[in-house]
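User: hey, got a sec? need ATP-binding protein folded
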Amino acid sequence: MIEVDAMSEGPDGADHPGRSDGADRSHPPSDSQHNTITGGVFFHAVIQGRDISVVLPPRITPALAGLPPRSSVFTGREEEVRGLLATLAPDWKGRRAVLVSALAGMAGVGKTELVLQSAARAVKETGWFPGGVLFVDMFGYDPDRCLSAEQALDGLLRALGMPGDHIPTGAQDRSRLYRSVLAAFAEQGRRILVVIDNVSSAEQARPLLPGDESTATLITSRHTLDIDARLHDLDILDPDASVRLLRETVEFRREGDTRVRDAPEHAATIARLCAGLPLALSVAAGLLVAAPTRPLEDLADKLQAAHTRLKELGGPAGEDFPVRAAFELSYRQLTEDQRRVFRLLPLNPGPDLSTEAAAQLAGADQETTDKLLQYLARAHLIEPGRSWGRWRLHDLMRLYADERGQADAVADGRDRASSRLLTHYVMSSDRAVARLRDLAPDTTDRFANAQQAAAWLEEERANLISATLAATASDRPLPGVVLSLSLGWFLASKRAFGELLLVSVAAMLPCQLHGLPRELEAPVLNLVGIAMREARRFDESVAVHRRAALFQREMGNRSGQAEASVNLGLALREAGQSLEAAAAHTEAIAIYEELGDDSGKASSLTGLGLALAEAGRAREAVEAHSGAVAIFAELADARGEAGALNNLGIALRALERLDRAGEAYGRAVRIYHELADAFGESTALRNLSTCYADTGQLDLAIDASARSAAICRETGDRERTADALADVGTLLTQARRTEEAVDTLTQALAQYRDLGHRRGQAVASTHLGLALQGEYRFDEAARHHTEAADIFAALEDHHGRATALNNLAVALRWAKRFDEAARVGAEAAALFRTTGDAAGERTARGNRRDALNKRRRPWRWRGRRR
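Assistant: Yep! Here you go:
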């Protein structure tokens, strides 16, 4: 939201009260305007004018310097770096830029390091990427931590400065928003480099690829990906480069250390046993640095022996033996406490973990644990996570640590460690959600305020989801079920319904299989039902909520029964069972009255009103919504009041009480605007627009829809933007402002096409065709009506296709294509007949008859030409 404060000076130069304390008083008054705003991508309106102080939303600095640390020693890859840099250069002298480069090679071959070095050089030295660089590790080869495109896009959008509540659900919608933001940066001359690391498949990478003609992307994978990219295959280092990497690393870290130079044969042996893999060579160099008196011959001998032992233990031949041998030797340098923590770290099921969580695993205090983790990081056995105080294991190192951990499970108390970590997640999630719901005490709680609680839940979100799934699938699922309840509430509040469905269904299964208490199963079922309703699985949602309501009734939990009845009513209405929905809401209202819960009663009245309106009982719906408005107003629940007013307007409009409906919509718009609720405001504006249109106030209707479109555009909601633009275009056509209508509907159609929204595309094409007819552009109109008819056919919408064909027949007749018009009119009439639309059939037959008449009698143009 943008706040605008008046600001002026009196004749004595004193500041008036309208000026903020932080205003700059160092410059004298001037008649010139100084309201230039630069250097950012804005998704809000910007107001400029004389004597206006514009206060933008809190500045969000995009995290566009997010490359992980690079190695100080990098050698043997200069040719590969030049090749990658050549692909990153922008268009130059007619040369076409390569927008996507995919680097493939075996595990540990140094793909990530090569990309990081090349990206850093491109950003710092060339000036090609003034916008900075985005980096994401997809964990593609670790089935327990592999990021979906949807999860990765969430993190990338947040790195780009997009607020969490503006990020849509679903990979497709997130991908569209992500591409739009990257394109916006590029258009402002802030070209960004995107680095997508550790991808396992083209499907995992494709939604993350930018869509503009400027943003460049580097991808690493162990596979050659089937995507539209310049492909690069990275091989192992040759023997000379391997020895050079070993030598330069040791000499860089220990000045004057000449052991590698002095023992070239043993250095060559170490390089050979490391198989030319930079990862293994780095670990081997670290071992030498840690023991400055150790001869290379000793290390070479130990590597050879370890390699033989690992072969006897088994493993994938020819890939990771040298790496595991290096891991083994590095592991042997640790103290027992360091080894134990290292072995326990893979028990965390998520992508990384905090020092706090690692301390729970170790059963030690955080200070001691932090020192152990710091050493492991210096030994290159773990890596810093995405923020300070978080840690991660590389894919291969994680497998090795888990292998060691299973071998020492009893000595480490592995089961107890896992239980401690899960308990930590359960209890912390419970307290965080309690704080967010204002249920936690103000003093003794671990979270000082709601902001801390929300930040912790967001930071641990991936871990909490993984922990829930792992625990509910175990033979002791109770903690996982408990965790699903607090986590589920948080995910529902974030409208992360896909994740909510995953977590809640995982918790529901052990409730049924293990006979867990119904006090747990009933709220789990509630979460499942909500998630299924949002996934449009309405019949399943109804069945689940019926079961939850039954359990609550059998337990005598009246509050739980009322909540279950409300959710059942919402699901029934979506399933088309309006009267049954009304009955469920009526039952909930009675219980809330019994409990004296006015807020619950108001929410139930809202649900009842919606169900009654669906059932065609608009008068009763008005009564129910009016009751909800009154209660919400008395409770000072502005958001609830605005929603109830919006629903009241819908019911009043159905009764053709348009003045009262417009008043209700207007009040809802004002409240939503005061609450800075963009979604609610845009919805109420669209409803207000339809009310104005019904009363013939087309200019007001157009203005309301245009305001709705602007809000949706600012929030990055492209589908709702397209809907609002389509409304504006249709209204402009009705107002006979056809030139503006054509332009607006063309924008809407382009949005729908880009979104892949087929029905929206068909409707927009229909209205664009009608607008073009108003501009006497009949051949163009015919093309759009044809497009609409084809899409409706693909959607098996026979009535929609009949309507589109009828419009096509009219356009063809005015274009003097009488034979085609007659044929299309006949097809439209036949389709209308199959759908039972007698009026539509008569209209189509009339159009066919007019076309035949025009064919027999030459048709003269009597209008203006364009």
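Quick note: The CA atoms of residues 395 and 584 lie 51 Å apart. Let me know if you need anything else on ATP-binding protein.
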